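Narrative progress, year one. The postdoctoral researcher (J.K.) led the effort to move from monomer predictions toward full complexes, under supervision of the PI. The following entry was the first complex the group processed end to end, covering 1452 residues in total.
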Amino acid sequence: MKKTYLHALALMLTGLLALPAAAQKQFTLEDLNFGGTNYRNMIPQSRSLKWWGDQLVRLSSDTCWLVNVSNGKEKILFTRDKLNKRTGTSAKPAEVARLNGASFPYPNKPLVLINTADQRLLINFKTGNEEWSQQLCAGAQASEWNQESRAVAYVHNDNLFVTDAMGKTRQITTDGSRNLVYGQSVHRNEFGIEGGLFWNPDGTRLAFYRMDQSMVADYPLIDVPELDDSARVMAAPAPEKYPMAGQTSHLVTVGVYDMITGDTLYLRAGNPTDRYFSNISWSPDGAIIYMMEGNRDQNEVSLVAYDAATGKPITTLYHETHPNYVEPQHPITFLPWDDSKFILWSEKDGYNHLYLMDTMGHELQQITSGNWVVMDLLGFDADREAVIISANAASPIQQNLYRVDVATGTMTRIDEDGKGWHTGMLSANGHLLVDYYQGPDVPRNINIVDTRSGEQQRYFTAPDPWQGYAVPEYRCGSIKAADGYTDLYYRLVLPPDFDETRKYPTVVYVYGGPHAHNVDARWHYASRSWETYMAQRGYVLFILDNRGSENRGRDFEQATFRQLGQVEMQDQMCGVDFLRTLNYVDTTRLGVHGWSFGGFMTISLMTNYPDVFKVGVAGGPVIDWKWYEVMYGERYMDTPQANPEGYARTSLIHKAKDLKGRLQIIIGLNDPTVVPQHAYSFLKACIAAGTQPDFYVYPGQGHNMMGHQSVHLHERITRYFDDYLK
Amino acid sequence: MKKTYLHALALMLTGLLALPAAAQKQFTLEDLNFGGTNYRNMIPQSRSLKWWGDQLVRLSSDTCWLVNVSNGKEKILFTRDKLNKRTGTSAKPAEVARLNGASFPYPNKPLVLINTADQRLLINFKTGNEEWSQQLCAGAQASEWNQESRAVAYVHNDNLFVTDAMGKTRQITTDGSRNLVYGQSVHRNEFGIEGGLFWNPDGTRLAFYRMDQSMVADYPLIDVPELDDSARVMAAPAPEKYPMAGQTSHLVTVGVYDMITGDTLYLRAGNPTDRYFSNISWSPDGAIIYMMEGNRDQNEVSLVAYDAATGKPITTLYHETHPNYVEPQHPITFLPWDDSKFILWSEKDGYNHLYLMDTMGHELQQITSGNWVVMDLLGFDADREAVIISANAASPIQQNLYRVDVATGTMTRIDEDGKGWHTGMLSANGHLLVDYYQGPDVPRNINIVDTRSGEQQRYFTAPDPWQGYAVPEYRCGSIKAADGYTDLYYRLVLPPDFDETRKYPTVVYVYGGPHAHNVDARWHYASRSWETYMAQRGYVLFILDNRGSENRGRDFEQATFRQLGQVEMQDQMCGVDFLRTLNYVDTTRLGVHGWSFGGFMTISLMTNYPDVFKVGVAGGPVIDWKWYEVMYGERYMDTPQANPEGYARTSLIHKAKDLKGRLQIIIGLNDPTVVPQHAYSFLKACIAAGTQPDFYVYPGQGHNMMGHQSVHLHERITRYFDDYLK
């Protein structure tokens, strides 16, 4: 593979300029925390790239360049100034404030799609002429544009509207409310659901979600007025529809609006009570809707095809069951070269793999296989009938890019070196791929890859943004899980002036839940910046991805079924056993910190192993799964009615009495995900038991602290360990 | 004065048995805190006494004794067992569970008034016959019984009912709700209001409050289910009608129900908007209602008489104004020997004193006067036309008992020694008085006093309940206020093994607001038990009643007008200056703690004097008076619209940035008095300013932590000082 060395000189100079240790700069939380005042300067630089068909375009705020994919050289395609001096508008053109959001929907036309404050525009960037415009709806709750019909669907004041390319707007629904939600995400964003508007390919039909949540209980969140809000004096209720495990859930149906007839119908999917409708997609001809239909138990799922013109079911193409749960997360994807075949994702062989199916419901073949998982389907090289994917086939902690021959399943790695973590962005014809690459020592490389030859063109090499700073040492390795044979990956972060003859206070950072992992082969092994800050202050940090976490296959994840936290704790205690083998770890000064599921893990560990962990900080913790939502909660725990022992065993209410060390619980007062009742109930239990956790709340914040409040939060977390562990 | 020495021997023995210091017992919070498991054993014993006309009765759970007022000797009057074997009931009599709540409404009849779980009974304790019974309303929200007519008025499901002596019940209102409140306290318990049902003397007419609060904003409190409540899963809104300063307030009117006619009318007091109706009383003949009527500005008050038969105003008897505020707190009291004259309380000469008025509205004379205040009007010696009061005429920190000749104002002290703190309970004819007495070294003495001769009969001497414990030293003294001349009283609590050559961390406990004081001549100078606990742990405690606090006259209190906290802080800093003169106070380790107004003071001091106070714990703190309620808030601060500078100057939102030391804020999640918005908004301001207070919340608790939760709270407060100040 060929590489360019444009930045080699810069790298060498950087090396020469390295300061002696004594003069090395110290990090602040403003440097390291997102929301920090210097954060942007401290993360590896990147490039904002877009495909214009098969041509590569780079965007900055004011300039758009065309990138020569053979040598990485750039030439200006247009400037923001040019767009703002555009012709073809009646009055003074409204300002395009920045180019970053631009896209290029038509491969063969020099048209840029970009918004002003109130318009969506297509501008011919060669002539400078505004070719088309569309009014944006101010305050839209959701919106989806189709590039073929140029129609936009949007939700405003809870109702669904469609504006066509000519600017004609039709209101599709009239009874929308907070009880009756149209065109927005449903099932609380589980099952891969991110939105509720689905255009067919040519933009003539719109499928949309309708969710009746009138029967769902309101969790009583409270909105405290902003301090500079002179119009509001008193705090106000901010109720959140929240179906708790085992309780009454919402009813979802799927509507279809036909642009040509103006008619709306609903898919005849039967009684929606206790069912999940997810992963909506369209047939290439735009006539059929495919949907994954699951039961409330989440132990079976069907792929059903519907006639979009009548709403009638056509056929069930696929059915999958598992005694624990089946979790569809990806819509089907049709082969661009054969409208009768599509790719289906399934974990049925134990790992997430791709299967080739036909529209008669026949499984034609398993495309990928092995004890690893497909992470993303980037697209196709249609001419040669290959699919481009990312997967962790090389190592459980890596993500690499592969070309897979659909017919044979032959898989060829096409990233730079088979190491690290690669995120791909495929061109229209699939011949070219932009590869964003981070490795443990690679801040960020961007390569342009020929997906057929595997040839690499280094386009960008980010300099080390931490040059001159006293950087900790990041180590990665694996230990055995509590089952004795499963490999678990860990990260160790050691103070910059690490001296292995010393004893360091050590903090275990933990998440531990499904759909996430902490340790991978990204820059610094994906270390969170707070770990660096803590290492600088003289702590050792240890992070272990226990069983239950993602990317390791079905059984690895499902080991925790009906008993969340139990197996995870066993594995984390294997981590502690490993720490005991490290002479530089002061095991009399062990701390633990985590957020969300990690907050649950933190309190679980503090109360189940009160003599092991001296200090803990638990953010947004689940305390009892009966207060968590139906979709996620029942998948892993079943209902409280069906699994009373599991709920009782994992509940931290009963563990409140066992708290010995210092534990600070931190929540967002407006957390709609893990509602404050969890923390409040744990405090109640502790007060009754005579134990003394500490507590803090961020008013106005949700499940995570946003913006600069994250800096405040991490100062707070740090101070707690400084106070009691150091 | 004659004294008996019944307990002298016991006291001597106690002294002889004192343990050497090394073996002295240590206090726990279970000993010292109300709600603590051993608290009842650690407070000075008392005796539950009641007057049966002019005969003195002692009650325990199972026995009732008659006390010989000449020698204190007791003989059994009846037992609980006797009442439970009573005759005159059809079925098996319901159980009287304990005698403690019994009373003796008819001086000349051997009848005891007592309740079973569901009945109010009059039992002849001589014959053991049940003479009369009345069903109790389960779940009544308020209830008031009249001993003459034996009718009871009560509120159930928000509506008002009256049941007469014969058991006939009539529903008086039908439209009661949480918006329309009948028969309960109004104006948020300010102006001395404690209830909303007022019988005329013979129980034939009932005056009652009606409060329309439909226009008052709801503060969104949240109710977290009890952990053992299996019927409720989710937290629920628990809105509290809360009129904030400057906002729309409720409308109060006064109804009169006539038992004889069955009619209800409302006093024609005019438009109730922004007016306060308080201190309702009846003329002795039960035909006229007297009421104090104040304006929203609280700078004028009128005493108005109404015809109870028509609701029409008869006359305005009295009118008082003050540029700051006038605060009526006591209903008028008619002279028992002259129905045309009554006693009015007023602070108009600068101190709370009694005035003799006639029903034509003439002020006949000032009965009491001097630079001290009348604290309670206990009753009259009608035969000799004297009034019995308690007052702090002897010293600002004492409460003594006096007989005052109404005609001449001649005042005679009638308590044991003119020291300490005496609380009186007067017999029917006013010849005898029970004097409950505490002094700095007197746990509790109970004397029976002849109010004419002043002769004392020692009835009970409580042993020192802390015998054998290592008890701190309590000192009391005065310093000058920041005005240079006003005396302020302080209490110092010193560790049991006090060594004045050492330096002690010192905590200032503060309240500082109106209607309260902390230092007086009660046992241990009224030291709060937590102070003893802290002293035992090696802290010095300092408590100073600043200007603004109670019992010192109008100008002392009103020095804080329109700028709550400012003068109070100046005075507290005089206290700190005094502490600097004490070599054993380590002024580098000064802490501060207070609750409610004291929480406001704590944060005010922490942020205005960030280099003086290192550690603070603020409970239920007011942060900005604009979030406090109309009645109390506007009295001292006027409205935010009328006093924007005052609100801005005293707001702690602007001071959040100045926090340097360690500050823990603690609130009850269900605090309906200082609503959580105060603390949340302060946290918001601190987060924005980058300062780091700590925070804790007691879910389900109100403005104060009740029961055993108080023990948890004080362990928490103590730990905070131990962590950061010790």
